[in-house]
From TrEMBL:
Lineage: Bacteria, Pseudomonadati, Pseudomonadota, Gammaproteobacteria, Thiotrichales
Listed cofactors: Mg(2+)
Organism: Cocleimonas flava
Keywords: Membrane, Transmembrane, Transmembrane helix
Protein name: diguanylate cyclase
Domain GGDEF: 573-710
Residue stretches making up the HAMP domain: 163-215
Catalytic function, reaction form: 2 GTP = 3',3'-c-di-GMP + 2 diphosphate
Segments passing through the bilayer: 6-30
Protein EC: 2.7.7.65
Length: 718
């Protein structure tokens, strides 16, 4: 009964098809047919109206009745025909009838029009059901026939599918499941279906191929496991001889050989090629052969005469296979008691750079050696060639490390090596002298023990930042830092750090030099330089500042004005100059004395200096009671406003001046001159213009501002 589940989808499809035919297509067909019938009936009604118009015009009722009776008789589907005049008088039939309004859609009405004048209308009611019913019944029979036929076709199709497709595929599925589980022994039974029969034949062929490939894959996996085991032992086992012994045992097992050897390429003092035996199968049969085997164990056996069968692969650089070596062995004159050699193969070994590193020799396999059997082990040959090279480099590295250790131990500067976590790995004797710790106290400790607490707190963050951003101010350059000795003493040291990467491992090597004595000398030198700098500043101040008021003196004014004029000309900008002096200052001095006069000059200098705080502005004592203000990047109108601010601020200070004819307080007269954009002039010319403006301000009554381009401005104090 399980196969019945395959019928359900088709049954659902059949039900859906029946529903579509009955509820969608059939009503649509009926509506379309009714519309067609009504269109036809309208046309017949129109023709009928054209027929009865002459009789209506003549008033011949008999003709009207005869015509309509004949038409009604010929159209049995017409259930009623009504002809009436425009005023509603019914001409046919003679008796008054009402058309059924239960379904007004089957009534066709047509107006009788003659020469654009409506005479009346004719109405025809059609029995649509009598016209549609036969067609609908026929369609329903056809619908049933289609459904029954489709059902039978589906049933037969599902049966045939189950018989000729499903059951064979089920058997195929079972067979593939067994193959997936590793069972390659059960073939797929033949099928009577031609297509499936060919498929089954191909499947069984594929099963045989998979079985063969599975054996090959298992063989390759065994070889890869052997390579992995060799590489793991190279990394974890310290005894190189033991690693080579395991390597040779693996080769003998995989190649099914009885004995063999592994040798390394060497060169004698004359640069002649020779072979150092790294490991050989113990086939000793007497004392000399046992001594030779022990020499191999000690690493003391090297073949210098390699022009023979056993070492020929080193000379040719190619695989040497000999499955009948008897004649070659006779030439070698093997010692009595040497085991029989039935077949032999020598395989040269290369590193990743295709450099000859050694060879492997195998003898007495159960089957003959072949290119295929040797190629099968290519992955092992590649690994052995690289491992021989790696062991050789490891030995060189050990020698290099010993040499480097001697250099580090005898270096004058301290050498410290840390890992990426800040753990100390190397601490040489010079570092011991600098910090006061011995090596055992520092190794495997954090580098923080060599730092003062305030630096040690931030060390972890700094190192993490470097490791994450690959940026540092210290790596690759020298830098002065503060260290801490074992006794707690802090000292200055110069540190140079280099990063060393070995694969993904980072080490940091620091060279440390105690610069305490140098820093003391530098401190003394800096102190002397500071004294000299202060003296120079004082001398400079004396040379550019007015000794009384503390503002710029005449020399500073002259130099600054020339420089600013050149800058203004170069940058095409404006520059203004304000000159002013104290009104009737001689009377002030005569009345109050020179001490008060000097005090008055100082107050005015301070008041004016407070007004100008822009970079580039300069307030200077021009001479006696006369002052000047240089205003770069300032046009005339702004300069006049600044001059007015000076005048008002001095008036607001209300410094008494009883002898002044101008006012009862100290006042000033100001002259403004401007060098506009594009004008060329010198400092003396600009001063001359400002001086003339100042003279005009004095001559016009003092205590006012004047410029060559302005009208006189007065600001008398009331």
């Amino acid at each position: 009964m399980k196969f019945l589940k395959y019928y359900f989808p088709f049954l659902f499809v059949m039900i859906g098809l029946a529903a579509i035919l009955h509820f969608v297509w059939l009503p649509y067909y009926v509506d379309t047919e009714i519309e067609s019938i009504l269109t036809h009936e309208k046309e017949k009604t129109r023709l009928l109206s054209d027929t009865v118009i002459p009789a209506m015009l003549s008033g011949d009722l008999a003709e009207i009745h005869t015509t309509l009776d004949n038409v009604v008789e010929k159209n049995p589907a017409w259930s009623a025909v009504v002809l009436q005049k425009l005023d509603g008088t019914q001409l046919y039939p003679l008796s008054k009838i009402e058309l059924s309004q239960s379904d007004a859609s089957n009534i066709v009405k047509h107006s009788l029009i003659y020469q654009e004048q409506e005479l009346g209308n004719i109405q025809v009611q059609t029995d649509l059901e009598s016209l549609i019913a036969p067609k609908v019944e026929k369609l329903q029979h056809l619908e049933l026939l289609v459904l029954v036929s489709s059902f039978l076709i589906v049933m037969v199709g599902v049966f045939l599918q189950n018989r000729f497709i499903h059951l064979p595929l089920k058997k195929l599925s079972i067979a593939t499941s067994r193959i997936a589980e590793g069972d390659f022994l059960t073939p797929l039974p033949q099928s009577s279906n031609t297509v499936l029969s060919k498929f089954v034949e191909n499947f069984n062929h594929m099963r045989n191929d998979l079985e063969s490939r599975d054996v090959q894959l298992m063989r390759q996996q065994t070889i890869q496991d052997a390579v992995h085991n060799m590489q793991s032992k190279f990394l974890t086992v310290q005894d190189t001889g033991a690693v080579y012994c395991d390597m040779l045992d693996t080769l003998l097992e995989l190649s099914q050989s009885e004995f063999g050897l592994i040798g390394e390429v060497k060169y004698d003092v004359d640069n002649q090629l020779c072979m150092k035996v790294l490991v050989v199968t113990n086939i000793a049969w007497d004392l000399p052969s046992r001594n030779m085997f022990e020499a191999v164990i000690k690493g003391d056996l090297t073949f210098t005469d390699i022009d023979n069968l056993f070492c020929r692969a080193l000379i040719t650089g190619k695989v040497e296979i000999n499955n009948n070596p008897e004649s070659e062995l006779l030439k070698m004159d093997l010692p009595a008691g040497h085991p029989e050699i039935r077949n032999y193969v020598g395989i040269p070994q290369y590193n990743g750079k295709q450099q000859l590193t050694g060879m492997v020799a195998l003898a007495n396999t159960k089957k003959a050696y072949s290119d295929a059997s040797i190629s099968e082990l290519n992955i092992i040959w590649n690994a052995i060639g690289n491992l021989i090279d790696a062991f050789h480099r490891k030995e060189l590295l050990s020698e290099s490390e010993a040499h480097l250790r001697a250099i580090v131990d005898n270096a004058v500067d301290g050498i410290i090596v840390i890992d990426s976590n800040g753990t100390v790995l190397t601490f040489n004797p010079a570092a011991e002298d600098i910090f006061g710790y011995n090596e055992n106290e520092v190794i495997n400790e954090s580098i923080k023990i060599l730092m003062p607490p305030m630096y040690a707190e931030h060390y972890g963050a700094n190192l993490s930042s470097y490791l994450s951003t690959v940026k540092s101010q210290l790596i690759g350059s020298s830098r002065e830092m503060v260290g801490q000795r074992k006794n707690g003493e802090e000292f200055f040291m110069e540190v140079s750090v280099a990063e060393v990467r070995t694969g993904t491992i980072r080490h940091f090597t620091g060279i440390v030099r105690d610069i305490t004595e140098r820093k003391e000398q530098e401190s003394q030198l800096i102190a002397v330089q500071e004294i000299l700098s202060e003296n120079n500043e004082q001398l400079l101040g004396l040379s550019i500042k007015d000794g009384l008021t503390g503002i710029a003196n005449r020399r500073c004014f002259d130099e600054t004005l020339e420089a600013e004029i050149k800058r203004a000309i170069r940058h095409q900008s404006s520059i203004s100059l304000i000159l002013f002096d104290i009104d009737h200052f001689k009377l002030y001095n005569d009345h109050y004395g020179h001490v008060e006069g000097d005090e008055c000059l100082t107050k005015l200098a301070n008041l004016v200096s407070e007004i100008f705080n822009r970079d580039g502005d300069l307030v200077a004592r021009y001479g006696g009671e006369e002052f000047a203000v240089i205003l770069p990047l300032t046009n005339e109108s702004i300069a006049i406003k600044f001059a007015e601010v000076i005048r008002e601020k001095i008036v607001e200070a209300a410094i008494p001046h009883e002898k002044s004819p101008t006012a009862s307080y100290v006042s000033v007269s100001l002259g403004v001159a401007t060098l506009d954009v594009g004008e060329f002039s010198t400092g003396s010319e600009l001063v001359d213009l400002a001086d003339k403006a100042l003279y005009r301000a004095k001559s016009e009554g003092r205590n006012q501002v004047y410029s060559k381009e302005m009208s006189l401005m007065t600001a008398k104090l009331h």
